[in-house]
Amino acid sequence: MPARTHQDDRLAIVVARTLTRAWRADPPTPSVTVEDLEPAVEQLVATGAAGLAWWAIRNEPELSGSAPGESLQLAFRSQALQAALHRRYLESVLLAANRAGIEPLLLKGAAVSRDYPLPALRPYGDIDLAVPRSQFARLSAALAEVPRPAFPVDIDLEHAFLSADGTPVEELIERSVRLEIGSSSARIPCAGDSFRLLCIHFLRAAGRRALSLADIALALERTSPSIDWTLALPQDDGRRRVLVAVTAGLAIDLLGADAAGTPLENAAASVPPWVRAHVLQGFEARPHAFLPDARFGWTVNPTQLGRQIADRWPPDPLSVVVHHRRPLRRRPSRHLQALDFGARILVTALPASRALRLRVAS
Length: 362
Description:
- By secondary structure, this protein is mainly α.
- 57% of the residues lie in helices and 6% in strands.
- It contains 17 helices and five strands.
- The strands form two sheets. The protein has a three-stranded mixed β-sheet.
- Helix 1 packs across helix 2 (34-46) and helix 11 packs across helix 13.
- The chain is globular.
- Residues 1-8 and 352-362 have low confidence and may be disordered.
């Protein structure tokens, strides 16, 4: 992993400052200059946060009228078009599910975008649905009949963060709220479940995306009166309670979320320094960089194998804690990173070695 520079730190801080309270209907002007924004535009666009950044600067002529501001405005207009196209496709997907007698649970970007002042402020590339295993095959068959759109979008039915959370889908659906989208319908998690799942997902994805932290900040401010805190902060599960508190603390500390009057108003003090530094580093990561649990590809080429090892070592210390359902400590667990790395090599090697034996035998 390359050494961090002062410029890298500066870029992370600019991203955080630009998005501070940007999810509000009337956000404050961010404390950045045109010179600050110029190197940050590419990162904001690449990570889907450009529209939110434009929303934050739009009423400040010096920022909005600059070259970086015009780039952000152009990205926002593109996001607005994408949002309209995605909504139409989402309706067709849900209609197909409804005709099959299923109201799936709608998760992540497609679910939270409706809470922003404008849906275009929260772009999403995937449509994330969840159903009980008993409905999985029926839903998959129904969705296979939906014509694919011209723009890139995937329908995701498997979610690692749900496994990391551990709550059965049936239980989430039982507490969920019905949502009508055009002539179709879906379920969305109740406020308490939604807040907890957003936090678990952010950490499971290594805390790389500032836009996902903005989702959490928005949920903390907008839905806190309706959040059942016994669900958001499970009293019988200290591990998940800490994960939620730490993520909320990051939203408060880095993006200025207001948690006054909630059980999380002092959560910023619970954030371990290494987690804060790690998340800031993630604000600078490219969106398609290797995630820490990416499997190795089988190869007998030593150069390719060495490159894969270099790309994946060390495993992300934040993601492995959530993936393996371990407590979040004041320091990263090197032991857990090593175990995770070895396990992923083993998972790759066992099927590959079996395939190799079959080829030799034939």
